[in-house]
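Why should sequence recovery work at all? Because a backbone constrains its sequence more than one might expect. Tight turns favour small or flexible residues, buried strands favour hydrophobic ones, and helices have their own preferences. The token representation captures these environments compactly. In the example below, the structure is given first.
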């Protein structure tokens, strides 16, 4: 067969995740602009994705999940940590816990102050508001005309309300909304990206309503293997899809939205990265950009848990099966009840020590016993309280294991490699134990299950527990950091430094991890990039 001519489009977007879906939506608003959105995973039509309580199944399965693993972590007793990432239309927003959180305003002001003009809170806030549809919320602090539904939980578990009372008794005031003030200290029920009790991913919000656009081509099940260059100009991508290996040309730009693990992997596979490391793998170097893959940050998380004897939690026991069946019936009819829960229903922000300008701890409360991300079932009933350190100083790397584009990259978050991080997490664990031990739990109070009575309150005992048990709470960022120092990868317009027609647009560009969950910030990054490309910045 004669070689097929390469297909052409204006913009190629690699990765239909939180940022990629926003970007595809906005760019294709211009009828004269052709956009091709390429996603390695499949379509997002699945009741397991739509039903919020499908979350544990998504974390256990590989169908919509890259199911990654870190390198052995020296400071965590050599453990390898499980890293789920979404591999499906909507990306990680299709498998996440649906918490809507923008991060602390000061985090963005820090980005701008570090030499990234246009990224201050006053710049990014309008982009958050633009995509929000939160009609029941205070219009002074929420948008109401965007495509992203942001809702209150329909049926919070009574234990989540008990948690709020216990947190209040420990000095964390009750918050109705974390977006209504500069300082989010306190606890409340989280707002969720749901619509009428079902998950509302970036794909539901930004792709489903515009599938009919003739200028938007959607290609699922296609894995981009590298960016193609003409000299130092990105001119297209090579991909592996149902029709085999193919090349696609971009008349305007290639936009990498493959997330904090795969965007740096793609840059490296394409010859952009540390030149010596690339040559060692036999990869032709396009440009020596030593920062690619470096600067990785993540929220490391530790949990405390408690038994509860009234069986109000989601547990494993003989009573659960009939309850689940009744709840499934209820969900089918009304889209509420237990199956509409996002699991991490409540939580909030706290300071590990007085005098800090911003909270440096976040709590996530689950009315269930959680082990190993829900991959291991725990017999009985109970609750789990997570504490994560919000602004870690440790930075790790994403690097190539081999030049094979289908091999997973090497993920080394280097957790706790900076000495400042462990004390923050230790205080978080103390706080979580204090909240679970509060008399405010009343009839629901049970014995502490973990760390458990065998673990004392001294630093050494808590540190040992953290090293043996800490896990990710799924917020990797910073692996293609924005900035202008020697290790920055993109400039403040998200252009890869030193080459033309190539940008990175996803969580990997964050110069520093924001103090909160990362889905909404990733979507905001998609909005920002669209404004740059459409000349609206
Ligand atoms: C289990 C879990 C729970 C979470 N809970 C929350 C939460 O409750 N609230 C919150 O705010 N945040 C949460 N997060 C984090 C949040 O969802 C992510 O930070 C955010 O979705 C990242 O967006 P992104 O656009 O950077 O990447 P992603 O959304 O991960 O998108 C990247 C996309 O690129 C695709 N891709 C990768 N490589 C290729 C390739 N070579 N070719 C083609 N396509 C490719 C992927 O399949 C994926 O669809 C959670 C994450 C996880 C995994």
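From this structural description, the recovered sequence reads:
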């Amino acid at each position: 067969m004669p070689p097929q001519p390469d297909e052409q489009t204006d913009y190629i977007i690699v990765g239909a995740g939180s940022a990629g879906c926003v970007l595809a939506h906005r760019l294709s608003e211009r009828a004269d602009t052709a956009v091709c959105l390429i996603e390695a995973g499949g379509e997002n039509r699945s009741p397991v994705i739509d039903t919020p309580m499908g979350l544990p199944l998504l974390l256990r399965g590989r169908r919509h999940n890259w199911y990654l693993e870190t390198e052995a972590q020296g400071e965590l007793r050599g453990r390898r940590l499980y890293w789920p990432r979404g591999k499906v239309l909507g990306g990680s927003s299709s498998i996440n816990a649906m918490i809507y959180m923008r991060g602390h305003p000061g985090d963005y002001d820090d980005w701008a102050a570090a030499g990234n003009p246009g990224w201050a809170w006053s710049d990014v806030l309008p982009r958050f508001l633009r995509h929000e549809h939160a009609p029941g919320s205070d219009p002074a602090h929420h948008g109401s005309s965007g495509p992203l539904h942001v809702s209150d939980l329909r049926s919070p578990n009574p234990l989540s309300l008990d948690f709020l009372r216990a947190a209040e008794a420990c000095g964390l005031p009750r918050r109705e909304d974390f977006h209504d003030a500069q300082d989010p200290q306190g606890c409340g029920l989280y707002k969720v990206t749901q619509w009428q009790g079902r998950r509302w991913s970036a794909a539901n919000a930004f792709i489903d309503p515009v599938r009919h656009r003739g200028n938007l081509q959607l290609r699922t099940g296609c894995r981009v293997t590298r960016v193609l260059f003409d000299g130092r100009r990105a001119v297209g991508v090579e991909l592996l899809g149902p029709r085999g290996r193919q090349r696609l040309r971009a008349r305007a730009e290639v936009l990498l939205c493959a997330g904090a693990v795969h965007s740096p992997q793609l840059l490296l596979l394409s010859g952009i990265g540390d030149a010596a490391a690339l040559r060692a793998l036999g990869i032709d170097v396009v440009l020596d950009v030593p920062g690619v893959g470096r600067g990785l940050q993540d929220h490391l998380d530790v949990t405390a848990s408690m038994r509860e004897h009234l069986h109000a939690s989601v547990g494993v026991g003989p009573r659960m099966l009939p309850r689940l069946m009744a709840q499934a019936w209820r969900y089918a009819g009304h889209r509420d009840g237990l199956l509409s829960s996002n699991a991490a229903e409540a939580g909030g922000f706290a300071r590990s020590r007085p005098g800090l300008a911003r909270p440096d701890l976040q709590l996530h409360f689950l009315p269930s016993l959680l082990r190993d991300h829900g991959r291991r079932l725990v017999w009985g009933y109970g609750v789990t309280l997570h504490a994560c350190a919000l602004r870690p100083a440790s930075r790790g790397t994403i690097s190539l294991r081999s030049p094979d584009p289908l091999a997973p990259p090497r993920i080394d978050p280097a957790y706790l490699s900076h000495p400042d991080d462990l004390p923050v997490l230790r205080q978080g664990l103390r706080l979580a134990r204090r909240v679970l031990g509060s008399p405010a739990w009343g009839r629901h109070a049970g014995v502490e299950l973990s760390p458990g009575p065998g673990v004392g309150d001294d630093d050494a005992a808590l540190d040992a527990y953290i090293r043996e048990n800490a896990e990710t709470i799924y917020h990797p960022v910073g692996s293609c950091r924005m900035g202008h120092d020697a290790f920055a990868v993109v400039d403040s317009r998200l252009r890869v430094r030193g080459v033309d027609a190539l940008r990175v647009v996803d969580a990997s560009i964050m110069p520093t991890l924001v103090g909160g969950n990362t889905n909404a910030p990733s979507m905001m990054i998609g909005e920002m990039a669209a404004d740059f490309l459409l000349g609206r910045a």
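A few observations help interpret the result. The chain has a mean pLDDT of 96.
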